[in-house]
Design goal:
The protein is built from eight helices and twelve strands. The chain is α/β, with parallel strands linked by helices. It has a single domain (1-278), classed as Spore Coat Polysaccharide Biosynthesis Protein SpsA, Chain A (Alpha-Beta Complex), CATH 3.90.550. Strands 1, 2, 3, 4, 5, 6, 7, 8, 11 and 12 form a ten-stranded mixed β-sheet that branches. Strands 9-10 form a two-stranded antiparallel ribbon. The radius of gyration is 18 Å and the shape is globular.
Length: 278
């Protein structure tokens, strides 16, 4: 059985997506990794194009002026290049823990279903803190992102974060979750994160889309506040297990100098551990 992983990235270094670490991490899991690269101008393409023979990078010009539907187009372009029996769709800041690699392959071999879901663990600020209530900010909690490589698969949702079998109703049953998916999107340089949230449809506070794009220097002057009072009540300490990728380079997965971890330990003596499926 051959497994394809497909993803997409544009200016991943500038936007702090952890893209190099993400691709290297999944090499032991996938038989091939397809990356749709959006003609980056920050060195992303040069950083990923020769990482490993398993990784196949192709490029195109992304036109971001077509509403959120444009996202589906470049994700689907990567999917159509997959040659595996099964496929896994991941964002550039999402990591499957290595202890789940075999679990996923076993599920693929034994299930009669066309698609399978994952549950997201949304880290925030650093790899020891997570948001326990992602729905408050419209962050994803589950994704249907494992699927057979068949023509009937189509992307689902406004940003194509899930897939479904064409002609069937989309049903995501949490009881069918195969594994946790570690999401490090909110572990970025604070100026970059605030710029993304403000300019990408106001995702931070469920706000309407902004009327104009602010220049990047504004966010460097006024970066995201890690101790934003809207977020603090939702945060919990994560006690592991930690992926080897994180243990090998903890600085790559820390953007707040551990201030949130220290703050939470001072506020709540009892930490909350998130169990992982195995």
């Amino acid at each position: 059985m051959k497994v394809s992983l497909y993803t997409f990235v544009k200016n991943g270094l500038r936007n702090d997506y952890h893209i190099v670490a993400m691709l290297k991490h999944h090499l032991p899991f996938a038989d091939e990794i397809i990356v749709h690269e959006g003609q980056s101008t920050d060195g992303t393409y040069e950083a990923i194009r020769n990482l490993d023979p398993k990784i196949r990078v192709f490029r195109s010009n992304w036109d971001a002026n077509k509403g959120m539907g444009w996202v589906n187009g470049f994700k689907d372009a990567a999917r159509l290049r997959c040659t595996g029996d099964w496929c896994v769709l991941l964002d550039a800041d999402e990591f499957i823990p290595e202890w789940s690699f075999n679990t996923i392959r076993q599920a693929m071999q034994t299930t009669a279903k066309q698609t399978l879901p994952m549950k997201l663990l949304n880290f925030y600020g650093n790899y020891k803190v997570y948001n326990a209530f992602p729905e408050k900010f419209r962050w994803p909690a589950y994704k249907m992102n494992i699927h057979r490589n068949v023509p009937e698969i189509v992307l689902h949702g406004g940003d194509g974060s899930s897939v479904r079998h064409n002609g069937e109703e989309f049903v995501l049953n949490p009881a069918e979750v195969v594994c946790d998916l570690h999401h490090f999107g909110p572990v970025r340089r604070p100026a970059v994160m605030r710029e993304m949230w403000r300019n990408m449809r106001g995702r931070l506070y469920n706000a309407p889309p902004p009327r104009f794009q602010m220049p990047s220097f504004v966010f460097r002057l006024f970066p995201h506040n890690w101790k934003d009072p809207d977020f603090l009540p939702q945060l919990r300490v994560y006690e592991g297990p930690y992926m080897q990728t994180v243990l090998d380079d903890p600085e790559e997965f820390t953007r707040d100098n551990m201030q949130l971890f220290d703050y939470l330990n001072q506020q709540t003596p009892a930490t909350v551990e998130v169990g992982t499926l195995s």
